[in-house]
Specification:
18% strand; alpha/beta; 8-stranded parallel β-sheet; Arginase, Chain A; 30% helix; 8 helices
């Protein structure tokens, strides 16, 4: 006796090519027809200490296949909701071309990819790469309406210029704040010895940043934290994997203890999608060689897939 589970290919996670979520690969970016377009940005020349995030996109894609069973979406019994069913069309754009030692050229290629996703009406999701890849991602929004940037990170990343460097992974939030179409920043999870000196915090607040540590965010809770974002703002979300405690995400170049646990971030993202339109996402700083268990990459994939599920569930 057969049933519907016996038709077609089983297509287990370890079979086939590891695109994001095992979704279709689109090499011609002028033909994108999707709700979500995932772009790899395997660039890590902006790091100040441990490199390796250039391998992040491959690792996160491979980890994402773990969650690629079937076509009926994922049912969540707590929410009594099915997320990411076939109505949400996700494609994988592959990777932006990276030119070794050339930050400007590599960033420009990343920007081109994000612009292609936006031109197609798709939600751009960029997987880094170090956090400097956020700079070309935000640059690509210059023809869009105003955005508010939500950063989930251990580090403020608000350095202006250090020894002539303007576009490393310590600079992206400063570069974002300078944009006339970025109306403000909410920086969540900032803690410990950071990438920005004391004056950077004053500069960030003067340029429209609201800065919260892990402990402050937990004390507020997800509802009150998200209330601090201006009402009706269109939100771009940048997630540095070092926002999470290295006890669950050791595979990153600059681990910082005392970070978030999984549900701390998941509940923030779910609440965010209830109140705001999310117009772009990047997830950065996964450096898989520092985590032989693969759990950091799995965490990154799971966060992205759940976040996308929340976004499209709350759009209906």
């Amino acid at each position: 006796m057969s049933n519907t589970y016996d038709t077609g290919r089983l297509n287990l996670p370890f079979v086939g090519i590891a695109t994001f979520g095992k979704r279709p690969y689109v090499s011609d970016w002028s033909t994108i027809d999707a709700d979500v377009a995932v772009l790899g940005a395997p660039f890590d020349f902006g790091t100040q200490y441990r490199s390796g995030a250039r391998f992040g996109p491959r690792a996160v894609r491979e980890a994402s296949t773990l969650f690629s069973f079937g076509h009926a979406g994922a049912y969540d019994h707590e929410d009594d909701a099915t997320y990411l069913d076939e109505s949400v069309r996700i494609i994988d754009m592959g990777d932006a071309d990276i030119i070794h030692t050339d930050t400007e050229g590599s960033h420009k290629n990343i920007e081109t990819g994000v612009r292609a996703a936006l031109a197609a009406g798709a939600l751009p999701v960029t997987i880094g790469g170090d956090h400097s890849i956020n700079i070309p991602c935000i640059n690509a929004f210059d023809g869009q309406s105003d955005i508010h940037v939500v950063q989930i990170d251990a580090h403020l990343d608000f350095v202006d210029v250090r020894h002539g460097v303007r576009n490393g992974h310590g600079n992206p939030m400063r570069r974002a704040a300078e944009k006339p179409y970025v109306t403000g920043l909410t920086q969540i999870g900032i803690r410990n010895v950071s990438s920005t000196a004391k004056e950077g915090y004053a500069d960030a607040r003067a340029m429209g940043s609201d800065i919260l540590s892990v402990r402050q965010t937990r004390a507020l809770g997800p509802v009150e934290t998200i209330k601090r974002i201006p009402e009706a703002a269109r939100v771009y979300v940048t997630i540095d994997i070092d926002a999470f405690c290295p006890s669950i995400a050791p595979g990153t170049g600059t681990p910082s203890h005392g970070g978030f646990l999984y549900y701390d971030v998941l509940e923030l993202l779910q609440q965010l999608t209830r109140k705001h339109e999310v117009v772009g996402i990047d997830l950065v700083e996964v450096a898989p060689d520092y985590d032989p268990t693969g759990s950091t990459s799995i965490l990154a994939a799971q966060v992205l897939l759940n976040f996308l599920g929340f976004i499209f569930h709350n759009r209906t």
